[in-house]
Amino acid sequence: MAFSAEGMIQSWLSYHGKAEIYACPFVSRAYKDEYPLGSQSFFSHVTATAVWHLTGTALLSTGCKLTYGNYPFGSQWHLMPTIDFLKWIE
What we know:
Elements: E1 2-10, E2 13-25, E3 40-55, E4 58-71, E5 74-87
Antiparallel strand pairs: 1-2, 2-3, 3-4, 4-5
C-alpha cells in the first residue's frame, strides 16, 4: 500500500512526499528458524523531498527517507538524507 502527494509551492520550488507500507506474513515451515510460524514482518518507507527547478530541463532535489523494518533480529529504524540532480535533453 502506498500514498503519495506532490505539488508546487512556488514556480521554482515543488515538493514530493510518499509513504509505503509492506506486510509480509510468513506461514511456511521453510523459514521457521528465521521467522516463527504465524509471525508477520512489517516494513515501511516515508520519503519527503523538496525540488528546486533550476532551469526548464534541470532539477535539484533534497530531502530524507525514513525506513522501518521488523527483522528476525529485531526492529530497526534508518533515517537517510538524499540529494539528487536531474538533467535531461529534449
